[in-house]
Hints:
The structure is a homodimer of 661-residue chains. By secondary structure, chain A is an alpha+beta fold. Chain A is 26% helix and 25% strand.
Amino acid sequence: MAPDYSNVDVLIDRLMAATWMARCGIDTRVVDKRGTKIYAGQADGLQCRTLEIFDSFGFADRAWKESNHMLEICLWNPDSEGKIRRSDRIPDTIPNISRFQQVVLHQGRIERFFLDSLKKYSDIKVERGVLPQSLTFDESKSEDPDAYPIEVVLQHLTEEEANPAQRQATNVSSNTKSDGLFRSNMAADDTDELLDKAVKNGRAGTRETVRAKYMIGCDGAHSWTRRQLGYKLEGEQTDYIWGVLDIIPITDFPDIRMRCAIHSVNSGSVMVIPRENKLVRLYIQMTTTEKGGNKLDRTNITPQMILESAQKTMAPYKITYEYCDWWTAYQIGQRVGSNFSKNERIFLAGDAVHTHSPKAGQGMNVSMQDTYNLGWKIAAVLNGTSNRSILKTYQSERRRIAQDLIAFDHKFSRLFSGRPAKDVMDETGISMQEFKDAFEKGNLFASGVAVDYGASILVAKDGDAAEQGDGTDVSVSKEGGRIIGKSDLATNIKMGMRFPSFQVLNQADARPWQFQEWLKSDGRWRIVVFAGNVSVPTQKKRIDSLGASLSAPDSFLHRFTPKDKPIDSVIEIFTIHSAKRAETELFDFPEIMRPFKKGEGWDYWKVFVDDVSYHEGYGDAYKGCGVDKEKGCSVVVRPDGYVGWIGEIENVGKCFGTNGN
Amino acid sequence: MAPDYSNVDVLIDRLMAATWMARCGIDTRVVDKRGTKIYAGQADGLQCRTLEIFDSFGFADRAWKESNHMLEICLWNPDSEGKIRRSDRIPDTIPNISRFQQVVLHQGRIERFFLDSLKKYSDIKVERGVLPQSLTFDESKSEDPDAYPIEVVLQHLTEEEANPAQRQATNVSSNTKSDGLFRSNMAADDTDELLDKAVKNGRAGTRETVRAKYMIGCDGAHSWTRRQLGYKLEGEQTDYIWGVLDIIPITDFPDIRMRCAIHSVNSGSVMVIPRENKLVRLYIQMTTTEKGGNKLDRTNITPQMILESAQKTMAPYKITYEYCDWWTAYQIGQRVGSNFSKNERIFLAGDAVHTHSPKAGQGMNVSMQDTYNLGWKIAAVLNGTSNRSILKTYQSERRRIAQDLIAFDHKFSRLFSGRPAKDVMDETGISMQEFKDAFEKGNLFASGVAVDYGASILVAKDGDAAEQGDGTDVSVSKEGGRIIGKSDLATNIKMGMRFPSFQVLNQADARPWQFQEWLKSDGRWRIVVFAGNVSVPTQKKRIDSLGASLSAPDSFLHRFTPKDKPIDSVIEIFTIHSAKRAETELFDFPEIMRPFKKGEGWDYWKVFVDDVSYHEGYGDAYKGCGVDKEKGCSVVVRPDGYVGWIGEIENVGKCFGTNGN
Lengths: 661, 661
């Protein structure tokens, strides 16, 4: 008997990609081998860019409200007598790089926001206790848009199998030993074991075959998907072992609610990450050498041992706790996957293709941003609005980020784990000035807003595509008519970087908005027309003729938009002008910039103005973007908020004419 | 057989009071005669102060996110040729009076926020389809704290009875006639009818007797509770009839997303209130005279008729719609209840004691603020932290507000309903300048932040208590030791008004907060110590001795706090100092200002500083409050956020020593 099977466009195992599919209307299944949701304690810093992405999905406000906000980093170092003292204060988030600042929140809440969003926009459900048992891929069908080249046998686990007995206790006393290392990277992966058991128990109806057009594996450092594809993580494991304690601290250390990096003379380092609900996370170094040296018996690590290390480092300040929410230990490894996809059909993301120290606060952020980068591309190909060539940019863009991350993490870990130099002659010690400089530089990197994707079919910037990415060929051939945007028309908007935010007012109701709030993650491309000073007749004329060309029946706007869909459903046009709001009327603008919809009248949420608000000051958006207030420009923004092209107001069609989308 | 009965501390029928009880841990039942929640269309403006109150309960962010924000009022008047034109723009909310601005949101959502809050903090449920059938009150037990002087027989309705067939359709075509007047104030109240039916159907187990210590009746303009008490609404009904349409407008009127007041030469007036989800509410005048004149057959009012009136007023602009969410018509009456309570045991609130025009955007706001004023007082008496004398301040404070509201509404309605004057000689016409002035003045009133409660046992300000209130005697006798606060120590914080907001930073983690965010509605009194410049030794000494006196075993703080409760559970101390944050440590402050809790360590959320933030500028709080940056002062804040006393730092005990609390 042939096995039953079902078809699905995308098979994935994490929520960010699922959320994209939900917003883009793609047929998707999400499977997770675990029977339960996130465990206690697993918390993460959310960088500025991650919060911006959350906002584009509509739930940054929930994270912002529930999280702990980190404002300042305090550096503590030994003074000349060896006593730790606060040597520096640095802002945790560099001022003015984003409308958000870095915060910390339990992963369970973040998962909840994604699940609520999935529920709101789709009927995608996470199927828990389901894991892939075998994967076959028909390479010959890679380029066939109608084919389902991926076949996966899914094993459904029993509840018992999906919820192993070793589950993390939510409140451990300081003497509990066994649970903290469960699911630490120092414990063995249990996927194969789970699978073996399930196969042995094999009951009818617990296995099914799914054929998929695309598959995304974000299945962790031991990635089953990666192993099936035969891809490797390149790089190495260090001997640094760190303990983690999530506690409500009882301490006289004055900066316990700040993010702190504490270096003691001889007793190691502690990083303090204040969390929500009075919790504080402590990262404590348990070994002091990068390679070899005094080996620690890892299986003996206990919370008590971790606490004692912290106490030594933080002396003479006292620290203890009555409530411990979670603890673990891990070993730092810094590795990057050799390949991020198989024929742009099966993709790897997150820990499956890069592992690094959690202390840089990057873990969840970079992983989520991988699938944030990938999700809309797959959706656009499936929806027929883009061709498959854009999928190559996933590896080009994200593998490069992973490489940069690992380089940063390597340097940072070495500085953090090292012993402070006694003086300038102490060559094996770490210079605290160098550490501070690295921390500050790391802050910009860690914010996520510095991400700068290279030239490609999706980013019309100058230079060599392979060099700017990870080496993958994503260039537009000369014959294809490569176009290069004009970066000097918007000196603070960078092609390849995310569209920055600034406050503008809605022309129709004078409400101030951070313009980024309008760049929703719903799969749409955007054209932002900086219309300039429309009170000047010649400029007004430029806008009128742009309107005429956009609304022409043969315009790219009509070409890309299915006949039965609203004109703004594939490419949305926003206008930001710089004339006085009170001297301008919405109806002064061409109708295509405020399109009429049946039953709803004109669209009042498309035209904005760079003017003073009543209650929230002046955004000064043109200045902030480096755009000429009289002449303006046009900017094309990808569905993920990254800038694809900048050019003259009337040239925007050229970009869409040639760029594959 | 004697009827079974149950005891309850408070019996109420609206959510604001219930929310207070939930937050103060009071045994409460909430009954509502309706079987369902709020109907489509019932939307309301939320004033600044209402949003501040929502924030004190923890859900202003939800209202802020979902609502439509109104930023600007546009006045449209006939020009010399009789064509309407925009004559003025005024900010809808006066800048800098609050951290919120007026917004508009469907009542059903607001109800949802309250219900979610009730669920989070208590097990209070709204019992729907339940209405009181009889009320008896034993006046002789009024002053006995243990007595249940109120006995109410509650009738449980069947689902059919509680959900009358006449239910408002959510999507009415413009030809539907019958439903819009359902529950308009032009339809008869159906309480008695419901009751009659239920009695006739009388089944076993559908009736119960409840004995209560307190009862709050917010049962609308036809208030059953008020009728049982024999109290009257004083004032009169006008002949002004207004129609209301909630539509998605299709119009070329340029200000449809602004709040507009449109006066035409001869065709009446329209008020435009833009709402959420693309909806716009239009208030349209259907009659043109205050008394007598051409009578309209009210039962014939249809949405088509209302639309046609709007079209006449708004010509030459065109307006129509395909989607109507709701419509109604109402007659303006301006009346105030003679009494707001029976022996300070049974209270009336909201429409039960004041009715007025909805156009001022005051309806729900003033009603909610009635019970916001009342709820904590009842809870404090029941919890034993206040004596019953404070309950008299409810009528004194809120009846005065109702009187002021009706006076304002009377003037505003006349100006709004009248015909614009043709010129200065046109004596029966309305001066548009006068209208604009009234609108601007009305804006401050309508914001809710101008509320200024008179001198009383709860407000230690100078002057005659009866004169400043509604005439009720709420003064502190000279023998009782009346104290008067020192208003000159904080020139922008006013006794009797709500504590204003401004940004400060948390000393422990540098996070910026609007200080008002910490004034949670949880029943606690607050002492805000403006500690001044604590880097000056003499000032530091003042703070240290305040700390010593507050933590003395016989201090008022210990006297008011039950032995088994945390020291901040009845009165919470917040400190705002003006020294440099980075040169000050949390541990510089007396422990009573950052109390130690077992298992949790010290409290990091009690000491704030008036200093520059990294990302949100400088709040300049001392300047904003008019407090001397060196010397500071103390301010006592009531549980509802209103200022009770201002004085020297060290004198705060005096206020608590004598004031009844």
